[in-house]
Amino acid sequence: MREPRWEGGWYVVPWQVIFRDIDTFGHVNNAVYLTYFELARTSMWLALTGGSGSKDVGFIVARTECDFRHQLEMEPIEIRVRIGDMRTTSFDTLYEIWSDRGRQLAATGRVVVVLFDWGKNHKTPITDELRQKVRMFQKVAE
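RE: above sequence
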């Protein structure tokens, strides 16, 4: 399987749909799409911040939404994520999931995350450094 990469302003995570993701009807269960979003979001965050483990994930999820466009089966897919609007303590992560086989858009989504300090147990502001990193990675990748 290919490695994650920046491409066209997106962080692209190649993935193989596995059997446990499939429901009785032979397609990916709708709840699993949010797990795919999580996989890509965490991978992008660690790439942006240089982190390497779960304790390096400095945010919590506040809201999720997903629009389903095409059924996925046990097949290779690409999960694409990028950061959208950035506010004081939260930002949007935007998603596209593409089927490799048909190159069809299977789903789009948005997840709002809030930066969080686990040691102090409260939200924290987005730093200028993080804003610059996001702009740099997403612009360079376009």
